Amino acid sequence: MKLLGILFLATSSPAFAASTAYDLRMDLALDGKHVSSPRVIVKEGESATVTQEIDSQTQFIEVIATPGKIQKHAGILMKFIIGTIGPNGERTILAKPQVLATEGKPARITQNNSKSGAEQLSLSVTAHKTAF
Predict the structure, then answer these.
(1) 73: β partners
(2) Is residue 83 part of a domain?
(3) Number of domains in the chain
(4) Could you give phi then psi for residue 62, rounded to 5 degrees?
(5) Residue 114: count of CB within 10 angstroms of its CB
(6) Would you call 53 exposed, middle or buried from its count of C-beta atoms within 10 A (0-12, 13-18, 19+)?
């Protein structure tokens, strides 16, 4: 009887509970040129960052994913910060897009250059809910 009580406490402890996470598959294009296709698993409500060296420049994508709703549409709300990291470690932010996606379906956001109208940044993301 004592063993059963201990087993119950151990399995009901928060330390053993799986937390919600999101598996994000992204495609990033800058100035019309495909730059990268990173994949990251991020815990719900926490920040995750992907950094990569592209054409001798370090770029980063930071994301926080949570359940969200925009104009009565529910889905996975992802808030991104996209930028570069200089040689001294200083971050330059290029964009802070947000996107609401239906699980398993690609969502895309673009940002155009205000002067020329040309596409400056394009981010496509497909999100899947998972356990962490």
Answers:
(1) 70
(2) yes
(3) 1
(4) -115, 140
(5) 7
(6) exposed
Q: Residue 83: phi, psi to the nearest 5?
A: -170, -165
If we measure between CA atoms, which residue out of 40, 61, 71, 57 comes closest to residue 123?
Answer: 61
- The strand pair at 119-131 and 107-112 is best described as antiparallel
Q: Domain range holding 85?
A: 18-131
Element (H, E) at 52: strand 47-54
Q: What is the DSSP letter of 3?
A: H
Q: What does pTM read for this prediction? A: 0.80
pLDDT in tens, the chain (132 residues): 443 333 334 344 455 556 999 999 999 998 888 989 999 999 999 999 999 988 788 999 999 999 998 888 899 999 999 999 998 999 999 889 999 999 999 999 988 866 666 668 899 999 999 987
Within a domain: 13: no
Cα gap 98→18, rounded to integer Å: 26
